[in-house]
Amino acid sequence: MIQQIYPQVFHNFRYELNKDMQIAAAHFIPHEAAGKCANMHGHTYFVNITVAGDELDESGFLINFQQLKKIVHGKLDHTLMNDHTDLFSNARAEDFPTTEVVARKIAEIVQAQLDTMPNRPTCVQVFVRESPTSYVVYRPKAGNR
Ligand SMILES: Nc1nc2c(c(=O)[nH]1)N=C([C@H](O)[C@H](O)COP(=O)(O)OP(=O)(O)OP(=O)(O)O)CN2
Ligand SMILES: [Zn+2]
Q1: How many separate domains does the chain show?
Q2: Residue 37 annotated among the catalytic residues of the structure
Q3: Domain limits at 129?
Q4: Any idea what the CATH number is for the domain that residue 109 is in?
Q5: What pLDDT shows up at residue 4?
Q6: Of residues 16, 37, 84, 108, which has the active-site annotation?
């Protein structure tokens, strides 16, 4: 079980849900500035996804927790991040699989799913802990949907 206090995100929506998941994955950062992290290595990423909205779906959900897990954990768990060429690139820094970019890509995956739902919830925050001492918080700009 994951037990952690996460940073709060300000919003005016009536409902907010949070889904935790652990993703075991390998990556490498294809840049000399990454030092030893330019070599392939693995992490157990601790991910927290925050979704908010004013309306629920016909099940009384903002989004089913299981569906959230499936679209993120189901895609990335036990994979090499760099292999996901639909998400990451070894040529563009904006798309290297850094913690920052992993958090942004998870937000984009989630928002793409949310955009198909009639109740139109919003992904307001993605927290990604890559190691015991390093984490990133990504908050999509309002209106980027
Ligand atoms: N801003 C970023 N800096 C670094 C990233 C990153 O994604 N964003 N990534 C790495 C490496 O991938 C590495 O896996 C993590 O680095 P680091 O926190 O240094 O890991 P340590 O366990 O060695 O940390 P200690 O606190 O020294 O134990 C590097 N930088
Ligand atoms: Zn790493």
Answers
A1: 1
A2: yes
A3: 15-56+82-138
A4: 3.30.479.10
A5: 76
A6: 37
